[in-house]
Amino acid sequence: MSGRVGASHPFALSARDLRRRRLNRMMRLVIAATTALAILPLVGITVLIVSNGVGRLTPEFLFNGPLGSPPGIVNAIQGSLAMTFVATLISAPIGIAGGVYLNEYASPRVTALGEYLIDVMLGVPSILAGLFAYLAIVPLLGFSGWSATIALSVLMIPVVMRTTQEVMRLVPAGLREASLALGVSSWKTSVFIVGRTAFSGILTGVVLAISRGLGETAPLLMTALGSNDEAINLGAPMSAMPIVIYNNAGSSDPQMVAEAWTTALVLFAIALVLNVAVRFKTVNSRIA
């Protein structure tokens, strides 16, 4: 008797099963290929920024001002961090409160309207936020860090709000019901039960908003303008890393182009550290 499994063997695969297996292998290859295509641009950008920017990455470049010898970007780093920090203080509470309201208290009609408006805001180009700040805020506050902060907040609030709503929606309804059944008020349930359970996801949304704020260019060009001043003064024009990159990248001077690449590397590193720190915090909180 042959050792091979014949067509009449009870465990022989039917033609339908064989087609399913071939289709499954083909789809796995397609998914793997599309995943590689999605990752390749990120890898290419990372390699390009690191290879072009690491050459000028020195302590003097990081801690000297633009008028120093050699010139540095300390004022741009300070400006980016200061404006994004203040924008986070504005956008995070508003975005979190809005997400909690839409998920916990709003009627279905209000929730649908809120989600629609959030989606519209998420799709608005950043240049429009800069134009809004230029027309509505700059006449009141002038070209300053405050004007740039408001423009960044407009872009960051929808990110925080949508993320908060989505992660709170994933919290099991049983937790809410058990808390309410024990006599806990609805607002305490939302804050201390649902909010605490979804805290890591909310924190991730805040960091995503910070990363977007750090990298925005158009709103800063139309509000903060840029400055060589090393003092942190939100009431006056301020420099920021995206402004330095924009101004230097198109220069005919190779030295300034190299500074643009190095500034991009510093900005990339700051955003990467923030995201890795949040991921580490999230993993630790889940383990605990």
Please characterize this protein's 3D structure.
It contains 12 helices and no strands. The chain has 2 domains: 15-55; 57-287, Orthogonal Bundle (MetI-like fold), CATH 1.10.3720. The protein is globular. The protein is mainly α and 288 residues long. The longest helix is centred in the N-terminal third of the chain and has 39 residues, at 15-53.
Task: Count all strands and give the number.
Answer: 0
> How many domains, in number, for the residues?
2
CATH superfamily of the largest domain: MetI-like
CATH class of the largest domain: Mainly Alpha
Hey, roughly how much beta strand do the residues contain?
under 5%
* SS field, number of helical segments: 12
Derived from helix and strand composition plus strand pairing, the structural class reads mainly alpha
Quaternary state, please?
single chain
Mean residue pLDDT: 87
What is the percent of helical residues? over 70%
